[in-house]
Amino acid sequence: MSFIVWQSKYETGVMSIDNDHRSLVSMIENLYSAISKGEGKNVIGDIIKGLSEYAIVHFNREEILMKSIGFDGLEMHKETHQGFADKVNSFQQMLASGQQNISVEVVSFLRDWLINHIQNTDMQFVDEFKKHGIV
Fold it and tell me: Of 50, 65, 49, 53, which Cα lies nearest the Cα of 17?
């Protein structure tokens, strides 16, 4: 059974952004699968490292596109991205301090982030991107 499944309602219509979001769904599913097998501790470090890299690449991609069209909500959007990066940073600190039992907390945060961020925050720029031919 899946923890989260990609659905058309998550699609922004911007291929590069949707592909990034799909990769996040894959990371979430990989972590959930490991948790289900009692192996969350074995993969959590790699997942958090992947999230850190994902945040840099994906958020940069979105912010460059927003800036290129003069999107009014850029600064607010950057703040939500920073919130994600801060949370991932706190997970890294927890791991560094020896806390290995954070897999469930991480996977829950990621699912909630993905659903809320895409459906609420990212959908705010979709129409503007399409008006400017960004697909």
Answer: 65
